[in-house]
Design brief:
The radius of gyration is 16 Å and the shape is globular. It is built from six helices and two strands. It starts with a helix and ends with a helix. It is mainly alpha-helical. A two-stranded antiparallel sheet has the order 1-2.
């Protein structure tokens, strides 16, 4: 993914790509929600957010109901970057699955989702 991004002129690491993707697809969220969704610890997430905020791709703003909390959201530049990265994402996914027919692709997705849910389930 990083090679595909760089070939398209996007200077982001894979983890930063995941953060922007999550915000683009889900919308604003807290740093802890975002960290869980991309499976980073708090310190690593703070470093990534600092870098992405420094590039003008996201911003932190106060939570509407809880003044102590912050919400993370894409800026217009971050949204534009996501739109630039989407074809890269599509090409990588297509290349990774090119040997699979549509039924196998759906089965793979189902298996991977179940494995991920099992790994995340604390019970």
């Amino acid at each position: 993914m990083e090679a595909e991004l760089q070939a398209s002129g996007v200077e982001l690491r894979f983890t930063q790509f995941l953060i922007l993707k999550r915000l683009a697809l889900v919308g604003p969220m807290s740093a802890s929600e975002l960290a869980r969704s991309v499976e980073l610890d708090g310190g690593a997430m703070t470093r990534q957010l600092d870098q992405l905020e420094g590039k003008g791709l996201l911003r932190r703003h106060p939570h509407e109901q809880d003044r102590r909390a912050l919400r993370i959201e894409l800026t217009p530049a971050g949204d534009a970057m996501w739109r630039q990265m989407t074809p890269c994402n599509d090409r990588v996914l297509e290349a990774a699955q090119k040997a699979l027919d549509p039924t196998e692709r759906e089965q793979l997705r189902d298996y991977l989702e179940r494995v991920l849910h099992a790994l995340r389930d604390k019970n």
